[in-house]
Structure to design on (231 residues):
């Protein structure tokens, strides 16, 4: 069955360092992959989208890579700040018969410490 | 622009009752999605509506149903509530592009917290 795995253990890093979060998937051929941020008690907020034919995407301090051979996406936050502390979710979608269906990973909690 | 709005914020019901959750998408968005986020389980896809039609359904029993109105707002109905239905129910909307919606980001509301006693 299709599976999306994100590190369930919280990631604690120091302010100013680069945070790297991993999203691995199996039994899936996604057309594209998205990353979202979720704060406690709030809905997810869209961050970045990367297509299957793109290797890397950047937006300000954020960078996403997508390796369809390894079936893995890496999400980087450079020069991390305490305000970056949140849960980060990856989501995959493909052109299935039913159209748009995003499948989410369970997320990785990031804590940026002073 | 106004974001996705959901109501009510919190809803408390007892087993066997019925719950109705509401969602207003971002203006101009025709697609509405519903997700369930139970503790420790992540977001589980429930339903997708577009142009008033149900386009896709997740692996949930038929007592989870909904509809989309002509103004693109949506309702999620849960009948015969069970304790395990306690969760945060999130609604998201997206716009289409050339008939394909699946390459668009989804914009989420802050959810309805449903508690079953």
């Amino acid at each position: 069955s299709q599976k999306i795995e994100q590190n369930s253990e919280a990631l604690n890093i120091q302010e100013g360092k680069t945070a790297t979060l991993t999203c691995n998937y199996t039994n899936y051929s996604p057309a594209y992959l998205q990353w979202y941020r979720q704060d406690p008690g709030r809905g997810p907020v869209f961050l970045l989208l990367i297509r299957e034919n793109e290797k890397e995407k950047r937006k300000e301090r954020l960078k996403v890579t997508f390796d369809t051979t390894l079936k893995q996406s890496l999400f980087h936050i450079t020069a991390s700040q305490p305000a970056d502390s949140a849960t980060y979710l990856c989501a995959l979608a493909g052109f299935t018969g039913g159209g748009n269906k995003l499948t989410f990973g369970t997320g990785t909690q990031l804590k940026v410490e002073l | 622009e106004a974001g996705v709005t959901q109501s009510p914020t919190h809803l408390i019901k007892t087993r066997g009752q019925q719950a109705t959750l509401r969602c207003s998408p971002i203006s101009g968005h025709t697609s509405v999605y519903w997700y369930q986020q139970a503790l420790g389980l992540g977001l589980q896809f429930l339903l997708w509506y577009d142009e008033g039609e149900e386009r896709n359904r997740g692996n949930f029993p038929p007592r989870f149903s909904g509809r989309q109105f002509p103004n693109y707002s949506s309702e999620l109905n849960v009948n015969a509530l069970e304790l395990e239905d306690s969760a945060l129910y999130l609604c998201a909307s997206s716009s289409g592009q050339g008939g394909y919606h699946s390459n668009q980001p989804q914009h989420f509301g802050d959810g309805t917290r449903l508690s079953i006693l």
Q: What stands out?
A: The CA atoms of residues 37 and 43 of chain A lie 9 Å apart. DSSP finds no helices and eleven strands in chain A. Chain A touches chain B through 28 residues (CB under 8 Å). The two ends of chain A are 41 Å apart (CA to CA).
